[in-house]
Each structure stands twice: as C-alpha cells, then as structure tokens.
Amino acid sequence: MDGAMGTMIQAAGPTEEDFRGDAFARHDRALQGNNDLLNLTRPDIVRGIHDANLEAGADILKANTFNANAISQADYGLAYHAAEIARAGTRVARDAADAAMAADPAHRVFVAGVLGPTNRTASISPDVNDPGYRNVTFDELVAIYRENADAVIAGGADIVLVETVFDTLNAKAALFAVEDSFEALGFRLPVIVSGTITDRSGRTLSGQTVEAFWTSVQHIRPFAIGLNCALGAEQLAPFVADLSNVAAARVSVHPNAGLPNAFGGYDETPEQTAAFLGAWARDGLVNIVGGCCGTTPAHIAAIRSAVEGVAPRRVPDAPASLTLSGLEPFHLAA
Fold this sequence. Notes:
The protein is an alpha/beta fold. 42% of the residues lie in helices and 14% in strands.
C-alpha cells in the first residue's frame, strides 16, 4: 500500500490559488488545506504523488478522498461538491494505476477508494457538559457515506477502504452504506476496515480494544482488517500482534512514521519504519503493509524491500462460537 497523501501535498506547497483554481476563484471561504479539493483544481499534484508511490513499488493506491464527504466538505462550504471531489480523486488514482500497468503489465495495481471518519462522532458528545449530546446521527452518516461510496466506486475503485476508524459506530454507518451501494449496483468490491489506536492503552477513541473492534465489524467479512494512523510502528507493534491473533481475515497495517515531533513533523526514517514492518512480515503477522502520516515514497520503497519475498500471514478459520463486543469482547463458552 502507498504512503501519506497529506504529507506529500504539504511538501508540494500548494497555495490558496491552487486550491481555488478557476472553478472556485470567487468562493466565499478560504480553501487552503482542503486537500481533497485538489482532485478538481490541481489533479496534477495528486497524480504526481501517486506516480511517485508507484515508482517506489506500491501495489495499492489510496485515492485522495479521505475528506471527500459532505460533512467534512461542509467546513469549506463545499458539501454539494463532495461526490464530485470523491469521483475525481478516485479517477486520478485509477488513471495512474492504469498507466503503470500499461507500462509494466507484470505490476498489478489496485485503487482503494478511501472513506474517512469525518470530523464528527456518533458515539461521543463534543460537549463535556452534555454527555448525551451528539452532533450527528447514524442515519445522517449513512446518507453521506452512501454518496461517498457511490462516488468512489463510480470513479474506478477496486477496493473500498474505511480507514482511520476512531469511532466504531461511524464505521458501522459507513459499512452499512457500502453494503447498500453494493446491493444497488449488483456487484461487490473487497472492503478493508482500518481502525486507529489512539495511545498505548490499546483502545480506539470510543474505547474499544483491538479484539472488540474486530468483533464489531467481522460480520461484513472484510477482505482485510487493519490499523493505521495516530501511532508509529514501534508503538503499534503489540496491537498488530493482538489483531493478528484474533482476525479471521487478512491483516493490513499502515502506521505513521513514528510519533510527531514538537513541530508536528515526523522524523522516523524509511529504514526505521521498514525494519518494523519487515519484522512483522517475517513473524507472519501481516498481509498488507504501507504508510500513513509522515511516510513518503522513500518509506514505501524501503518497506517493499523489507517484505519482498516474505510469505503473507496465513488467514485462520473463524471459530464457530458466539462472540459479542462492547468496549471489550465477550465470548460465550459452549
């Protein structure tokens, strides 16, 4: 899997004018920082990042659609353009993948249409004085994710990636919407679900352990279940092992390049990141590896080299038992 899109966009240094382009020159809000909008206004920047990751050896391109949903785009006054942005972002990745495969037919490349978590949470109140308050409903999330899923599939995605899951209820809304989309279209795509462990407690922001998270989403029979963001590989290591021990699906991991420094940057070198992921591969813990925040095409090249020729993790059979989950899993003994 490829590396961080946001990191590379920041490195490219697009200006407010780049984000606006001609189409949004008169828009009444600042648009700089709306990385997904570059799919429409500067697709050449996005394409260049995909091409660099392909040159580094990536087999899966994550489309630049992390915030291409109506909730996230509403912050910029662009909610009505969300589907257009998602379609365009997936198409940029699709074109890059197709060009790479035309140049080297032996290199099979897949495009993952990314559904990000939005900036709202269905499980946690944003107001500490009113713990029962929610600023979004499950049905609202399903509606925006349905639009998002339809758009990335129309743009040419091979895979739907629901990633950076900090609230499992948000993810369930996304997965419900994705299933609706598949039913309406009459075909299915592989689905990867990737959660985010927020700190060394080993729990998501909404409080679930890795095993509870897997239990909550295993009913959709994902192509892969994974972890990404928030932590670097060193901090993520015990939780990768936990997930590998329980998941009856492929395991996907794309960690940050370490923890952020005092300036919000990332200092972990490609060799350091690759050493951890290579060890996980040799230990039989993972099937898909890549990078999140702070990782670059150089990280992806090092990771590919570290796992080259290593057999992927063997996917175990699902146990025939009743397992439920809240914050932690519950196993009903026979």
